[in-house]
Amino acid sequence: MFEKINAYAKRCLPFTDEELAHFDSLLQYKKQPKKTFLLLEGEVCQFEAFILKGCIRTYHIDQSGAEVTLQFAIEDWWVSDITSFTEQKPSLVYIETLEDCELLILTPETKEKLLTAVPGFERMFRLMVQRNLAQLQERLFRTISTTAVEKYLDFLNRYPAIPQRVAQHYIASYLGFSPEFLSKVRKKLSAQ
Amino acid sequence: MFEKINAYAKRCLPFTDEELAHFDSLLQYKKQPKKTFLLLEGEVCQFEAFILKGCIRTYHIDQSGAEVTLQFAIEDWWVSDITSFTEQKPSLVYIETLEDCELLILTPETKEKLLTAVPGFERMFRLMVQRNLAQLQERLFRTISTTAVEKYLDFLNRYPAIPQRVAQHYIASYLGFSPEFLSKVRKKLSAQ
DNA sequence: GATCATTTTTGACATAGGGCAAAGATACTC
DNA sequence: GAGTATCTTTGCCCTATGTCAAAAATGATC
Asked: How far apart are CA A21 and CA A24, in angstroms?
């Protein structure tokens, strides 16, 4: 049950087995069926979830009603709205399962306990936020300065496991253009 | 010299006067003339700078040679490449003064000392990174789902002090469209 | 204050990508 | 396995924005 998440933590920082045991003892296992919501816009996010199994999408609905996908997450990723979680403010996003999921969950309370008991985790979570920030910056640069074809190819490269698991129009909404246009992009690419 | 930065810190968290005095003792004052670089792409960022006076722009140059502005910063803002600074990795961005600047600087060493001596500051910097992340997310959503006119009006609203201080084509490069088109957007808006 | 450099504006034309509607293809559901 | 819902593809036409080049405006320098 905890092998994957322990391996994840060890890849970040050299935790001891006791520290990891403490970590594990605070995690809650949760199943969440396909096509259901972990978080709705306006709610306060009460979890940080590590995905043992499944696929999850985080998205925002803009003023004209269109969805913009912020993140796809699969096995070995964390999912949360960190801003909402840490500041306990209403979220701007929906978090929805695309497949049946198995999760390991931290709540504000268990995370608090963890950070008090094993301060090293503070660093791990800080690194996670920081990497998130760095990736988001790079994504903004790409969103502004590359063409649809480049965006799509880059996505395939960066997240090769995703296209097989999620509907194409979700990828279009991640990349920031219409599903019809993604279809045209794919046609063009396959013609070459 | 330290009133502004102390006020800034107090707005974040309720620091005591001794804590602030310690903070102040670690800051280095630095003047930086107009149109010079605090950081070049490829360098490792060795500072987090609080702006006492002046105006600074952070930008990236994409593969086709176009500039994408990541941030404008004026009095009371912090400037750094946090990813480069904390992980001591080469930066992707240029940080350039647009006006003569006066700064208060933390280096990796002084920041380390500060966090050890006054752990409360750990929280302040974490909040700063997190707000940065939240704002960047919202900006990505706007970049993807609003029109040039909306982007420009939103910018004016969000950063009313900036347009008077920076060249228009820099604003275009922040918003993600060409300077010519920004000019046309402005014409359209003024005609109404 | 004349000169030179940098910005901004304007106009003509080109193009990437959007919106809509219909047709095909896949995938669930009972 | 038929029927229904969802997703993807296609074609047509439309619009927002880009590109280029020139002119106009503004600003910096001696």
From this structure: 5
